[in-house]
Design goal:
Strand order of the largest sheet: 1-2-3-4-6-5
Oligomer: single chain
CATH topology: Trna Endonuclease, Chain: A, domain 1
Number of domains: 1
Strand content: 15-25%
């Protein structure tokens, strides 16, 4: 495997992405700006967190895993289009839930969770800078399941479409 010289690394290279996001203040700032939420304090970002609940099940390795007092965040960098992206988000979310809830615990102890993919290319092809998904009722779209699970796919190739100045500033570094 050929390694890139440090001068050629960009934010989307796994090594540099991990090192930048490992800084708790930068990671917190990224999450607050991109998700438009307030975070009081995050626990130290964990890089390459592995979750494998059973020796025969498919495990996962999360690029950057972050927690605050009542939420968990998985931040993934995606440099190429992956046709399995929708099912990956589902599986990652379920594995995070398994990791959070010990046997005998109540479902109310599940934290709100965010699976975030930062993609260099537009997976869906609508030229939107952000695609946000949550569980809603097909028959009554204003009815939310309120399971506190979120899947967000950022499309860096459409950053110029972003109206939010803070988000647009971030995209320009990609």
């Amino acid at each position: 495997m050929k390694l890139k010289p440090i001068e050629e690394l960009t934010f989307t290279d796994d090594f540099l992405f991990g090192r930048v996001m490992q800084n708790a203040e930068i990671c917190k700032g990224f999450l607050e700006r991109m998700l438009e939420i307030k975070i009081e304090k995050i626990e130290y970002p964990e890089l390459q967190k592995s979750i494998s609940p059973h020796y025969q099940s498919k495990g996962i390795r999360l690029d950057v895993y972050v927690q605050d007092s009542n939420r968990v965040f998985d931040i993934e960098i995606q440099n190429s289009l992956d046709e399995n992206l929708p099912k990956r988000t589902r599986y990652y979310q379920s594995m995070m839930d398994i990791d959070l809830l010990l046997k005998g615990k109540n479902y109310t102890e599940l934290k709100e969770s965010f699976v975030i993919f930062i993609c260099k290319k537009d997976f869906f092809g609508f030229n939107l800078p952000c695609y946000s998904f949550s569980n809603i009722c097909k028959e009554k779209p204003d009815l939310s399941l309120k399971d506190e699970s979120h899947k967000i796919i950022f499309n860096a190739s459409a950053f110029k479409q972003e109206k939010n100045v803070e988000k647009n500033r971030f995209w320009s570094i990609l």
